[in-house]
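Entry type: protein chain
Record version: 2
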Amino acid sequence: MFKALYWENPHMVLSTLLLGANIGYLLWACARKAYIQKWGWSILLPILLHGVFWYFANIRDGYSNSIVHAIDGSTEMGLFSANSVQSTVFWLASIVIWLLGILAIFKPQVRKHAFFIMVTLNIFSMGFIEASRIWLYHATPIRFTLL
C-alpha cells in the first residue's frame, strides 16, 4: 500500500521526503522553542518547506490536470478535483500561512505566535490531505493507476 502511495515514482519519493522534512522541522522547532532566538528565520523555513512540498505534492497528485479538467474537460482529472474539500483546505491554509509570514515581517512581537499558528495549519493541512489520499486509495485504488 505505502509503495503505491509514497514510493512509486520520483515525484512521490521527493514529496514524501519533503513531507518528512516538514514534520521533522516543525517538531524540532516546537521542542526547541525556548532556545530559538531568530523567529524570522524560523518562520521563513516552514513557509519555504510548505511551498516546495505542495509543489511536488500537486505534481504527485496530478492537480494541474484537475484544473484543466475543471476549465475545459480536455484531460483526465487528477486525484482530487479542483473544487474539492482537499483543494480548499490547502489553499486556505496556504493563504493564512503566507499572510502570517507577511504579518511577522511588520510585527516582530507576533512572530512566535504566528509561528505556532503556522505549524498548526501546516500539520493540519498535510495530515488532512495525506489522510484523504490514504482513504481514497482504499476506496478507489484504480485512481492511483491513472497518475
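Comment: The CA atoms of residues 18 and 53 lie 5 Å apart.
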